Each structure stands twice: as structure tokens, then as C-alpha cells.
Amino acid sequence: MSKEKRYEKEVKAFLSHRLGMIGLIGVAILILIAVFAPFIAEPVSGYGEYEEKLLPPSSKYWFGTDDMGLDLFSQVIWGTRSSIRVGIIAVFIAISIGVPVGLLSGYYKGLFDTIGMGLTEIFLTIPMLPLIIVTAAVLETTSINTVAFIIGIFSWPSIARITRSTALKICGMQYLEAAKCLGIKTSKIIFKHILVNASTPIFVNLTIIMATSIITESAISFLGLGDPLAHSWGKILNNAHLSGAFGTAWWFSLFPSIAIMIFVVSFNFLSMGIRDALNPRISRE
Amino acid sequence: MGKYLQKRIVKGIITFFITITLTFLIVRLMPADPTTMLMDNRLTVAQQEQMLEDFGLDKPLPLQYVSFLGNLFKGDLGLSFMQKRPVMDIIKERLPWTLLLMIVTQAITLLIGIPLGVYSGYRRGSKIDHFINGISIFGISIFVPWLGFTLLYIFGYQLKMFPVGGAFTPGIEQGLPYILDVIKHLVLPVITLVFLYLANYVLYTRGSIIDVLSEDYIRTARAKGLKEKDVLWKHATKNAMIPTVTSAGMMLGSMVGGAVLTETVFAYPGVGRMIYQAVGQQDYPILQGAFIILALSVIIMNIVTDILCAYLDPRIKLE
Amino acid sequence: MEKLLEVRGLKKYFALNKGLFSKGSTIIKAVDDVSFDLKGGETLGVVGESGSGKSTVGRSILRLIEPTAGEVNYKGENILSLKGESLRSFRKNAQMIFQDPYASLNPRMRVGDAIIEPILSHNLMSRGDAIDKAVELLEKVGLDKDYFDRFPHQFSGGQRQRIGIARALGLEPEVIVADEPVSALDVSVQAQIINLFKDLQEEFGFAYLFIAHDLSVVKYLSDRIAVMYLGEIVELCKKEELFENPMHPYTKALISAIPKPDPRIKEKRIILKGDIPSHSNPPSGCKFSSRCYCVMDICKEKHPELIDYNGHKVRCHLFSKGGENNGEISSKENC
Amino acid sequence: MKKRIISILLVLVLVVGMLAGCSSGQSSEEPGKQEEGDKFGGTLNIGTFADPDTLNPLVGNDMAGSWILNLIYPTLMVLDENGIKQPYIIEEPEISEDGLTVTVTLKDGFKWQDGTPLSSDDLIYTYETLYEHQLQWQYEVLEGVEMKAVDEKTVEFKLSKPFPTFITTLGFWQRIVPAHIWSEVEDVKTFTNDNPVGLGPFKLTEYERGQYYVLESVEEWPLSPEGRPYLDKVVYKPYPDVNTMVLALKSGDIDLTAKEIPVAAARELENEEGFTVEQNVSLGYEHMAINLREPLLQDVKVRTAMAMAIDKSKVIDFAFDGDGIEMTGIISPVYEQFQIGNDLPSYDVEGAKKLLEEAGYKDTDNDGILNAPNGENLSFKVIFANTVTEHEKMARVLVDQMKEIGIELIPDPMDKALQTDKLYNTHEWQLTINTWGILDDVDSSVSTLFYSTAPLNWMGWKNDVADKAMDEMKSSLSEEITMKNMDIFQKEIIADLPDIPVFVKKLNFAYSNDFAGFKMFPSNLKGLVDPQSLQQVYKVK
Q1: CATH topology of domain D77-182
Q2: Closest Cα to residue D225, out of D510, D533, D539?
């Protein structure tokens, strides 16, 4: 009876948040596309027919074909998989660095805080994209996973900040003192008390990291530093760019750009919806 | 004030020091010998060794680091592998353009972003609020090179309103024609970057205006019978601007990322394009120098914005 | 009864740094040389205005903050030297009830989980047994067992304080530090909770260190009372002794502030002038001298010792020489 | 409110200040030159992809730099339209019968752009400096060479052994610098040469790095049809993004592309009015090299089967949009005279399969990949630079084609520097897709690629018969000996196949029809911007 009630208000607020719902639907569709990609479009590889190079959209090729005569619709569909994969890996890395750093800073404070927040500031100070570019160039092989890994490595500061501020806030709460006083194990304090409370802001942040990681991956691929063998949207744009088709075959660059936009917009809208729903000041009664 | 400044500067120096050390290491972690790229395939072994020696790359890493730091203090960022000119000179040529691009972008983004954010925060939950947010989020979602190229195609090629790339026309007359020419070249890249960064300011301002509007002094101001317009645009906006200004300093780092792509598409002669080219050529001294200068700019900007915020908000005590 | 807790020379100093480049710092003496004993089953009331250091004493005993100096012996063992796991296992012997029942429960945790969490954390029993115990405890503190699955925000302040008590009881402690446990509650609820404390003490026989900012709350519950001012104990004696024969001017002021049940009894209320002074800049000599209505010249020069006057301890120059009235101040009222 | 205004003002002041600061480039508007004929006048804007790395002609060897530097510092020898080296600012060199003395005479009428006449001292100074500081790779050519100025215009080179392509190699690659200026330079290696004083048809008058390089025509250039270039100015503008460059061409911001344009853009421009697209051929070729240190690749039958499995026309279609010429042997069709008819095995999938089967390769584990007798899969990694799109596409096609005969190729794109490192230093590779650059002087350049001890022979090919043939070719003074050895060399290399040549690129260049008189020279290094072309380009009125 009472179990679900706690979130009832927030869920209601979210459901009535127009942008948030658009985002949620968008994300759901993207996940469905990624999961069911094999049922939507045949994967393409190698090269197609010479006569079918750079064909504009038609009933046969909905998004036209690329400079290798391959179906762009299929590439965009399969690119969804790469994108979600990149996002998930980046998010995973960002959490596994950001959360511990944030916790150490916010819970143990002192030297941990100085070092942790110093590192965070440094990572926020260094221009991220150029550094990712250089790091991508440093790595011997750039598979889509390593690209995602690098993006994750540079995405953790925002997570660390949020975890830290939540930890600091909760450490100042009496219930944490109560828990300490009751002799509850530190690990339990951290997980049950701090992390559970930090989970919502962290989640909101993750959806944003998800969105930015795709933009970054696309930029890296576009600059020719990504995984040349992956079906990522950035790679399609890179092919369009290198083949000089930006100005000649509009469909080559338009559809992957739209895909990126849908992805980024969906995740941003979703995070906005959640944030607004959780902030009672925003939803007008 | 003095102490706050001191503290802020010391923190900045430490950040800077760690950043340059990190940069130094990353650049030297490259898997291939950094001179491989500049070795003409037909260079002899003796020439290769000479080249390593010329760039000080034959020494052990700690020694390289010491001389790197020593030179840095003298303002010497080393020689570019490819251009064989001091990196400092190369950056000096490029930096003003990037700064111009960024300052104009920042100014315009703030000028548009803050009012939009204030208004959508004030009308939170309304259609107009969703519209403003939706539009600005669309802005950050467009792939920059594609947006840039599309703008070039439409306004540069089709409508012939703006030049296709560059920063100014060669041989243009000094004075007003020159300034107008520079502005003409600036328009499209700035539009691209404004699109890219608008959302940040709109959302930041919106968030803080919502917080501010529920505070007591706003209620007091309303209760005193002040006009709603004045309450919103004078009292609330001033206070809501602080987090936005803070984020403006932080944004600088990420703006450089956008500059890499934008400057490349628009053939704009800034640091971003220089970085793009240096990556392609594996010109590590340039990359290293660019990072150092950029990190320094971001750190200084952060200090400046912190002080600016303290100035805007008397509640932040400069202790 | 045996001594359960011996507190000796407890000090807690904070250093306030002035800045990165300015040398030195101001030392704040939040607790300065506090000593007392707590016997098994006894209730010691600690009273003082906010800032008197009473909460700091309570927290230091439970190692929620680290004291600067002193000893806290629990059954002869100095708990200030405990570390890690041994500290954690000591904690089940001494528990705290917090002032704010709204803040002392994690809003994201169900009531039942909050109660069994410490029991499980100390491996006192299996999960199933812990649940049974939690239900039993809920009933013991006067709550319905159906509340087990609810979240704290569904309860009133008084109910939450009961949950907090149940939570502490789960560990079967011998000492409970109650830090202003009722000050955040409505007056009508206060009495219920105080009665609960009394009942539970009778049933389980634990000792209370009961912290409050006015005497009226501790009057009913305490066996002995300590009065604190600016980090020091200024008076410590049996409850009856304190109310019948208060010695320290500050204690007298506090007693006079208790609302009288019969408004017709006109007893002159002693109004203390000014606020409690800043810790960083306490008056020289007696710390109370700046507000004392009996102040003498010596008070501003010499810091008075705590003097045992037949088991009635007091820190005041009025009684410093063997408890004799120095005569000088007899002209002043109430002294 | 006041504060806001102040901050806006501050920003404006900064912007204006910056603009003032940026405008250091001096204005170069001069009174227009007198019209000497119909064709004179006009500015040609050329799109390039990058700035020159350096303006120092003794150090620079990048492509963007050479387009500009060649106009300022023309070389002694140039390519003609057929890729044959011809004298440019010198008369036909004389080579003594024993091949040990080479005499070079400068043509009359050349002056440095400061008015000093070009003399034999400049030649000697340049070559001596080159040798002394071990600059470029050409310095090696000067090993054991004695130079003497016979007179103002003539230099005599004494070689220690016959080297028939001595002067074509040196003269084609090495630009000459003025001795009277450069002898004052402290360190020629790091000299930035910011105000170059050249010799060529154009002089650099104004530039802004990253933006433009303005070159103005000289008053006198004897090699132009009418004594000086028709154009008043040539302006190079760098566009790092080729799409933007093409757009700039279409919108009239530039009139010519120095860099080749992508085929898709070329096809579009061909159909557009006002533009001409011209093609030339690369002087090198795209190939797949084989590391002979790898046990499985040591079997020549495997290598031959791989060569037979490649359908080169498909590769050209997809890797380079059909704009290529198939390689039939080890020598590019551009150098037809050296092709002897030792052809590569022709495309024959069935034949390749049979060859492998006979050699004992069978798919014993049924994974679709053939196994060697020792059980190992015929599976190879093919490395290539991730920035070269045609190699990536080539890899995609080759993966498919090798699959046909049961060989698995795993594409392994990587950073260019890393690829170079693997090829030259670590030898940790199996197959690689790469380009041989400009193969001038075929008879001598094959030995820089395939001689057993040559640094570029990272395939690790060692064939004594071929080595001997290459030795003899290098010092051969008669065409007969050259061709005989060329035949031997080609037979050996086709039999061994350490390298599988695939195709020669055809490159597209486009220009606006507002200009005419262009001449196309081979390779993207020359194209339409060779001084021989620009010295006679004119604006259509």
C-alpha cells in the first residue's frame, strides 16, 4: 500500500512533463531500435554495387546509399547500437571513477577531498575534446570500446562533484550520525545511506553523459580518430566528409546527423523531465 | 579580498602545474617514437638521431621534464617538429582569433541565454518554457561540422551573404572596412558556436531563477508592491546570474573542443584548427603548447569569474 | 551502584584557521576539562544554554566527535583509544537519541529496515529474528507493528522519536545519551516521550545521560544534574539538592526561569543580561563574569576551580574559600 | 544596471582591441601595374589544405609548402607533362662518357628577387650547405662529389662513381637559395626565412599564417610566353576541410584547387557551368606489401594466390571511385617505357583456389578459413593508416576478395606514426596497405624500394639476382644495359611477389573558367600549380 506512494507525486509530475515524456519515448524507441536492429535492417559490410553508389533516398534505400554503395538506413539503424554501447560504457566508466572519488571526497574529506576535488577541477580545466583526440591518438588500436572508455575517463568529474555534494549534504544530516552511532558498518553507510540518496542526481547526470558521449564519439570519428570499422554515426559522417559528399549528397550527412540529434535530444529531455519532476519548486501547483 | 585572491591563485597554480605535468606525460606516452612522423622515409639513421637530439628527445624522461619546466618558466614552449619555429610564436598568431571567436560567442550567448532562461524560468511549466528549452537543447544536439557546413552552404554559397571560410580578406583596407570584413567572416562560426552553447546558459539561468523566485526577499519585494517586471528583471535576474557567470568560466574548456571542429570547417585560423592539424601531423610540441596555454586561459578565466561573482553577490564573503 | 562511565578531564578544542598565509589560529574551547561519573541505571541530566558544550560532551562520549584530550572509561576501559572494529562493537553498549526526529532517520529507508539495520550490522541475530525483534520493539515504544514497511515521512515527530528509540533499543545498550530528545516536539508530546524514557529505564535498567537546555525537562527524569556554561561544568549535584539549594548564580537564574505551575506565586525572575559570550573570546577570569549579577573583582581576574562542597560541586568565587560567602557581595540581591 | 553596461562595454573594448591587434599585416595595395597586353592582370586564388610547414626551402618537404615554394624557388629540373624530367632553369646537362663528370649551365636572364643575378656560386653554396648540415635526403647524393664553378653560369660536378641520375635527382628535388643572403644566416636548420628572396616567377609579398599567402608576379620571367607571368597575383588560402574548399571554389572565393578534390565533388563540378575538372595520374601507386618474416607468408604460393584473388577493377571502383589505372606489373603504367611485360598474375579466383589446394592448404576445421599443413589458419592482419580513406576502403574490398579463396584478412587501421613505426622499426606486421610515393627515375628508385638493404624494403625481400640487377641499373650508362637488368629485376620480383601492386590513382583538380592557360603535370605534387603552369595562366576577360 504505502510502498509505492513515495514516488507517486514525482511520477505524476514527470508524466505531465511534456519534454520529459518526449525524451522518455525517444529513449525507449532508441533502445528498441538497438535491441531489434537485426529485425529492422540487414547489417551491411564491405561494399555494394558500383551502380548503387551515392543514390538519393528512394523506396529501396530509404536514406539513400553511401560512397561504397551501401544502404545508409541500415547503417543508421545499426549505428544506434554502437551509440548506446558507447554511452553505456562511458557511463559505466564515469560512475566507477566518479562515484568513488566523490564518496572519498565527501565522506572522508580532508586529504581525500583536496586530492579528489583538485583532480576534478583539473579534468574540468583541461579542454576535453582535444585531450580525448590526443588520447585516442595515443592508443594503439581504436576500437569503439576504447573510444567509449576514453570518453568515460573524461566524463567522471561531473559524477564526482554530484556524489561529493550529496555525500557532504548527507554527512551533515543527523541520520548519518545516528547510523554511525549505531555502529553500522561504513560500507553499509556508504551504500544504503549516501549512495541511495545520491542515486537520483547521479542518474540525471548519467543521461547527460550519455548524450554528450555520443556527440564526443561522433566528433572523434568525424576527425578520423575513431573505430574505422564500426557502424557509428560519426563514422558515417566521417565517410561523407572524406568522400567530399557533404556538399553533393545531402542524405549522406543528413540522416546520421538527425540520428545524433534524436539521441542527444531524447536523453537531454529525459534528464530535464526527471530533474523538474524531482524539484518541487519547478512544478507549479 | 586579498586572502581570497591569494588562495584562489595558489589553487590555480597547483592546478596548472598538475595539468602541464599530465600533458607532458600524455604526449610522451604515444606508442610510436614521436619523430617517426617527421622522418622522411629516406632519412638516414644518423639524421634520425640528430633530429632526436635537436628536439631533446634522446634524454631520459626526468631530464626532459626538468628542461621542459625550465624552458616553460622562460616562456619557451619549444620548437614545432614540423614548422621548426617556436611554438610560442605559432600560438601567438592563432590565439587572438580563437579568443575573438570565443569572447564574441560568450557575449552573444550570455546576452541571449540569460533573458531566455529568466523568462522560461519565470513561466516554468508553460508552453513557452518548454519551447525555449526544447529549442536550446536542439541546439546542443546538432552535430557541429554538419551545422557549420550547412550554414556555409546556405548563407555562403547559395545566398552569398557571407564568405566561405577564413578570418578576413587579404589586402583589405585598414580601419572600418577591415573591422566590417572581420565581422562578416565571424558571423557564421559564431552562430554555430552560439547554437552549441546556448542551452547551457538557458538551462543554468532557468534553474537559478526558479530557486531565486521562491526566496524570501523576492516575496518581500512583491509584497512591497514593486512591479512584477522589476522584481523579475532587476532583483531576481541579478541574483540568478551568478551561477551562470560561474559556469561561463568553466565553459571555456569545453568551448575549445567546439572550436576544433568549428574552426576546421570554417577554415578559421585559430588554436582549434591548429590542434586539429597538429594531431594529424603528430606535432607534439604544438599540442603540448596548446594545452598549456589553454589550461592557463581556463584557469585565469575561472579566477576572474570567481572574483566577478563575488563582486556581483555581496553574500559571497571574500574571506 | 558501580560506575559505568567515568569521564575525566574531557576537552574538545577547535582551531579556527584565519587564512592560508596568516599564521596562528584562534582556539575555541568547546569543552574544557569536564569530569563526571555515570552509574548503572542512573540518569544524569546535563543542562545549559546552546553553546555550553553539553552536546559536545554527549557526542564525545560516543566518539561521534574526537575529543582533544581526556579519558572516557567504560567499565574501566578507555574508549577514546578504541579504533576500527573494536570501536564499532563498543557502540552497541552506548546509544544516542537525537534531538531532531525528522533528521535522524534516513528518508529513503523503511522504518523496519532502519530498526533491524544496526542489529544485523552487529551480527546480533539472524535476519528473521531481527524482524521479530523489530516488531516487538515497535510495540514496546508504542507503535503499531504495521508501521514496519512505512517510510519515515509518513510519521509525526513524536512517532519518529519513538522509532529512533526503538532503533537504539535494538542493540540493548547500557548507556543512552539523549541529546535534547524532546525539544523539537510539541509540548503535549514531550511528556509522552519523557514517560516512555522513564518506563523503558525501569524495564531495561540502562543509564541515561539526558541533555537538555532547560531544567524543567530534566527535573522529572534525573537523579543528578550537571549545569554547564561555556564548556565547563559550573554545578553538579543531586537533583533535589540543586533545586533546594542552588549555589551558582547561573543555576539560580535557570531555576528562576522555570515556569511556575501556579502563576500566583510571584517569585522574582532573574534576568541575565546580554548573550552568551563568544567562545573565541571568553571573558577572562570566571567565564560567567560578564553576565553575573553577583560579580566581584576577583571574578574578572581569576578562573574559579570546581569545588566539592559535600558532594555538591560548584565553580564560583562566592564559595571558593571553603564555601564561605566572601561578604563583599551580600549587598546584591539573590547572591 | 550600471554594472551590466560596464561589462558589455568591457567586452566591446576587448573585441575592438583585438581587432586592432590582429591587423598587423601591412596593406599591400600598390598602384596597378601597367597593362602590357591583353592577357595581363588579375588575381588567382588557390585553395590549399594547409599552411606550409616552413618557408625554409632547405628544410621543408611538405606538399602544401612545396606548392608555394616552387613558385618562389624553382628547381633546376621539372617534370614535363609525361612525367619525364626536363631542365627548367638550366640548359640540358652534359654527362661525360665515363659518367663521372656532370656539367650544369644556368640559363640566362634569371635574377634573385632582390636584383642580384643568379650565379653558379648559389648552386655550389646550396649543395655544400645541404651536405654540411645533412639536410633533406638528397644530401646523400652529394657523397664524394666535388663541385667547381667553371664560370658565372656553369658548375662542374666530379662524381666518384657513375650515377646517371645524379643531376635529375638533385636538380628535381633540391631548391636553390641565394648565397649572398643565406651565408649570413646563423643556423640554416632553424632559419624561418620569413621574408623569402626567391628566384621564381612569383614573390611572396604578404601572408598571414592560417589565412593566405599573397604572391606577386615578378617583372621579368624569361620562361613565360611574354616575358613575365600574366597574373598579377596568386593567393593561396588554406582550407583544412576539403568540403569547405570545394564550396569556396563553387562560390568564387577561390578559383583553383591545388589539392586534388574527392571524386564525388569532381563529378558534380564537371556538370556545373563555369568550372573545368582535369585529371592527372599519380607518380606512385597503391599496393599491399607482405612481411616475408612471417612464416605463413613465406610460401610464395600463398602470396601468388593472394595476388590472383584481387579484382583490381573492383578495388579501383570502390576505393577510388573508379578513378584509377590497374597495375599490371611492378612498374607503373605511367612509366610505360620501363614496363617489360613481366605481368602480375591475372585475376583468377578458381586458379588461386587450385593453387592453394595443390600446395596443401585445406579448411580442416570447417571455419571457412584454409589451414596450413601445421593447422594454422591462413588469417592475416592488414595494417593501414586510419587517416587514409582510400586505404580503408581498399581493405574493405580486399577482405571480401580474400575471403573468396579462403584467406581471412583482419583490417587493423592505426595511427600513421604507429604504422610507420611497425614497418620500419619493430617489423610487427603481416600485411600492409600503403602508397609508394613519387617514383621518379624508375631505374634508380626501384633500388630504394626493393634493394635487400634499403630502408624502405621493410618487406624483408632478399634476392641476390635482383640486387645485382639493381646495382647494375643504377650505374648503367647505356639504355641496353638498363633494360636488360630491368627485365631481370622484374622477372625476379614478379616470381617472388614481396609486394602486390594494385592501382595508380587518377587525381581530379578543378578550376574556374574565369582563368585559362593551365597546364597539367603529373602527381598532386605538381598538378596545375607547377610554376610551368602558373607562369602562363591568365584571366579570361
Answers
A1: Dipeptide-binding Protein; domain 1 (3.90.76)
A2: D533
